[in-house]
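Input protein
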Amino acid sequence: MRDNLTQSDIDKMEAEIEYRKLTLRPKLIEDVKVARAHGDLSENFEYYAAKREKNLNESRIRYLDRMVRTANIIDDSSADDEVGINNTVTVEMVDDGEIEQYKIVTTIRSNSLIGYISIESPMGKALMGHRIGDRVTVHVNDAVSYDVIINDIDKSTDDADDKISQY
């Protein structure tokens, strides 16, 4: 499956790849050489730790490279009065009247702990393209769904400070 990513996501991933290849990789290789020089590798914790960090960096580079190569680049613009990517949406849960706020993001930036929900999540799918005042049904699965009302759409947010997920 190809991930739907914005050009900004691609740019951030390419910048991280460049940093990891040009700055981090040489340092980690040097750390492995220095640790190896400490002698007996069978009891050399520093060597194994340095080697692990180097391998994690290489794994991250491969992951990001694969994401960039296979991404489906999508447009992050939307009409002024409808929910789109990078918008912060305030919704009211119809069942209990609870008010919640979510920022709609691509999968590579989603983090539900801080209220960043993916356009691929049930809530993200349901909200995309709707307007203030719309009652929207969120389908979690075949047996579970609930309704929310869109109270506000903040179009002033962007993705400049959003972090790319680690994995």
The radius of gyration is 21 Å. The chain has a mean pLDDT of 91.
